[in-house]
Batch of 2 targets.
Target 1
Amino acid sequence: MKGSIAENPEVKSGIDLFCAWVDSQMSYAGLPGVAAGVVYDQELVWARGFGCADLERSIPVTSKTLFRIASITKLFTSTAIMILRDAGKLKLDDPVNKFLPWFQIQNSFPEAPVITIQHLLTHTSGIPREADFPYWTTADFPTIEEIRNTIGNQKTILPTETKWKYSNLALSLAGEIVAAVSQRSYTDFVEENILQPLQMDGTYVRTLPQDHPLLATGYGRRMPDLKRAIRPFGDCKGISAAANMASSVEDLAKFAMLQFRDGTAGGKEFTLIVRQISGAIAKRIVCPIEPGAAFAKGEIYGMIKFGSRTELFFPACPDIELKVKVGDRVYAGTAVVAEIKNNTELK
């Protein structure tokens, strides 16, 4: 991790300041342990651990310590869908039940558009946040067979494409689509098509044993007596595609680096995933980075800078033209913000 960037005095000073801040925050919040890293282009500039991976045994956190990455799993599930999309095996506007005929959720809004893969990935499907089980309370997660058998008891709670609503159930369904389309298990597909090409050897889709030597002990929230109960690393079973993976800072850096490049990884072609998503999952506007840009009211899905331009992401729905005015120039693109009508010029 040595190189010109890592040795830059300003970078080193910034890292020192960051380390002091992490130490202070850990002390204030009573955090057991933290791992952090800095990526610049294709270089892991710096990575280290703070505190303990296991308090009782005084095992220190390092850059190789494994943590459950929980909902970061969703990024890998979405990437798997995009790989299948690029291979021509599915379209993002395909209905979910094209591949999962058992997806027969009760539709509370029959006039709403059919639920598609795109809706699952963008949390605009209108389906409930969770499957019909209290697993976040009991830590007893349902199998995918149990989810299949009970999905018909659940109802949509919003019309599609109207509001953003986070859903573990949606990304669990996306994982099942990966399995159905690829005719591989979700776990095998992610391992073979993402983790292995990126040489992410310290990342796991499958549930790790509690005694894995690199696995950090899980701790719950701090109680009034300032103690934290141990939270075992469980098996998410049927919602694994939404929450089950474990990884380290060093390995997640490899996935982060993918976002900053085109070209090959481990002999397999990867297109810049961010640009795939900006072109397909969310519609986009591209404009130079200039002062004075004004944007519509409503939720911005995200903002990413690419060199001399900025890409703005909005909840993805079709057929609304959004314009952004920067100085005397107007930039147009397809996007949706609820309050905006066709051909509205924003000032």
Target 2
Amino acid sequence: MRSISYFGLMAVGILFLNSCKKESQASCDLRPSARVDIRTIAASKLLSAEQPQSSDTSEMVLLRGGVLNTKDHFSGESKSVPIAPYYIDKQLVTVEDFEFFVKATGYKTDAETYGNSAVFVFEHDAWEMIDGADFRHPFGPKKTRAEANHPVTQVSWNDAQAYAKWKGKRLPTAAEWEWAASAEGRTQSIYAWGENMQEGAVFKANFWQGDFPSKNTKADGFEATSPVGYFGVTTLGLSDMGGNVWQWTLDDINPTPEEASGDPPTRKLTKGGSFLCDPEVCHGFKIFGHSSSTPETGMVHTGFRCVKDVAIHH
């Protein structure tokens, strides 16, 4: 069982808040992380899952290949990444989708294995480890059950990997996620949907309005997650390519010096921002924004979508 002290979580939150305000980096997000060596546990859970389903691509979009001009997420140096054609899910994996997987395979998530998970407690304006928090009750067993059509959260990178494998899919690389968000490299806009988080009275994504972490006006209609697709789709037909929940990718990234001081292992890159991102503090919604967390960590604002390689016939 993992545990993090309340003061430990507060220290992490304060550290990242100060870093975000000082640097205004798109990579910032307030997130605790708990590192435990669970390679044996993860391997056994993957082996326990049933054989992958035949992958239906009817709810996916086929993207052409090309070359993505981006920046290294650690060094910030410009680079070009070749992209092969692939399919990407139109929407985030939902609570209903993940529940179906769990019932079919008997899979047990990391949060369920540890018995607790990371929750942002609105009443306390802080992150806490909550016993019994899992994908069915992301804010804890005393709170409302997750709604079926909302993105699944409290799933670790390991959990997302297991689901993707079962579906005959995989997680996207960060470059593939950016390729999809940038409409196959055709758009130079800040966000996947355009230039603004809000156009008149219309919100383009689920994000924090007010003053994080103490005041959330919920002007967009949501305090936490929203139904997948609620805020519309991009020109490619993809929903929630920014806001709602952070999304796991395949990419490794080294910890920042601040992270390494208490949480040294390699982390997994996340994309997209979340409902906890206040644009005045954290701007992960940008196409090239990012954050990260350790692969066993489930959180209340992190989910995923899948991709599938295009079969090459000779």
